[in-house]
Design goal:
Largest sheet: 7 strands, parallel
Bound molecules: 5'-O-[(L-methionyl)-sulphamoyl]adenosine
Number of helices: 18
CATH architecture of one domain: Orthogonal Bundle
Length: about 525
Amino acid sequence: MFYITTAIDYTNGAPHIGHAYEKVLADVLARYRRLRGDDVQFLTGVDQHGQKVQQTAERLGIDPAEFVRGITTKFTDLWSTLGISHDGWAETTDPRHKACVQAILQALKDQGQLYKKTHRGHYSVRQEQFLTDRDRDASGAFGAEWGEVVEIEEENWYFKLSEHTDWLRGYLKQSADAVLPVFRKSELLNALDRNPGTDLCISRPKDRLHWGIEIPFDTGFVTYVWFDALINYVSFAGFRAQPDAGLPDFSKLWTADERPVHVIGKDILVPAHGIYWLCMLHALGFGDAVMPRLIVHGWWNIRGEKMSKSLGNIIDPDELAARFGTAALRYYLVRDIVTGKDADFDAERLVMLYNTELANELGNLCNRALNMSRRYTGGVVSRGGPFDDADLALQSSLFDSTAAYKSAMDQFDVAAALEAFGSHVHHCNVYAERMKPWELAKDSANQERLATVLQHLVESLAHAAVLLGPVLPEASSMIAEQLALPQLTGLQLPDLHWGLVAEGHQVGSPSPIFPKILTPEA
Ligand code: MSP
């Protein structure tokens, strides 16, 4: 089972393209694994508790539950617009999640992993955590990223994180795919060396924060939002769930054969996922063989700057989808960023990549393969005569690009997979230009050769429809329909072979799948 999750998005504001990117990336990987023939469980959701939600709801004069319902709908609507194919949906106000968080807290308490103490210190309201001197900037102040910082003294519950950090260091050093890309693992190890072993404060007193999951053995406190949120990866996977809870069977999802994959942004590797979560799992008795793999993606920035409300440069994915279409948006979000690195969001590049790679290259291949087949061979596909060098080169290009596509997808590198895909589509268009079916058609003596050339284009298009599926499922179905081979969308990678289009098959007629985007700025 390939169990893939994303971060769960905060519900204190509307979704932006950063959220959209992560969900599309995970969706492409989940769809790719289904295409590979794997069983897939894809979980995403929303992080609904915490001080920020409580404060925003208070400001608006509404109940936090009502507030998060409204924001949650914005996310679910967007995921449906973008065709996100999650199997599970995590909402941290779900009673089944709450029960799991409380069971975990009780188990850790019973094991002696939790203790209570009083702490006086600086507290960041924005990040909902106590700060230490290490969080001060060069001038000795707490930087703007911490927002409002207040000095407070508080009694709270702590998790003995420091008992697990030696294990964590050893685990990270010996596991090749604990954190990908590898340079992120170095960042995590550096952070561990800089900050060895402080315990984690996992509660908040209710008089300050009531919008959270109550600590089961000390009802004056709620659970720290990160401790609560991280548990979604196991709670919605059925960990310690009632058999009739409508959740998956945990033992099938969380296995050593195929360790779970968490797709997260670079900002939440250290300390949340890379330290807190792995140590929490370790404390719960999870062994190295079942530690999740962390796929850490970079950020979409705007002209090198972080997107932020204060800079007023937040990009709304709904607007982009309405303006350019979901295919253009999905394609751009995974095409113009290398998994792990940052990229600059640029609507002109979105239009340019869509117009060149989809409208001009793939759209053109689709249009010319089907149009010429209909015009010159009545739409009937046939092998024609013997294959010449150009045909064999086209066949090996398909074979090689498919292998490169698979290997890139297996390494979570969607941009490289799309490049491999695009290189074969381009090869097909160059082949068409060189073979000139329109010239061959002028002399009936070339009929066999013409059939061979068209068969190569149509066969390539059939493969392209299948390989495009994980990234652009709708366009993939449209190509399959136009080829009159709707069954292509049900194929899996092991089914791919030269000969998907049977001898004598009659193709359908083309209609534009990727109409060019015409904008004043394009
Ligand atoms: N709620 C926490 C995650 C809890 S996971 C147990 C959170 N939420 S978030 O809404 O701030 O971010 C959700 C995801 O979106 C994170 O993985 C984050 O890295 C990602 N992104 C937020 N801004 C982003 C960009 N500008 N670009 C790409 N991804 C970004 O953190």
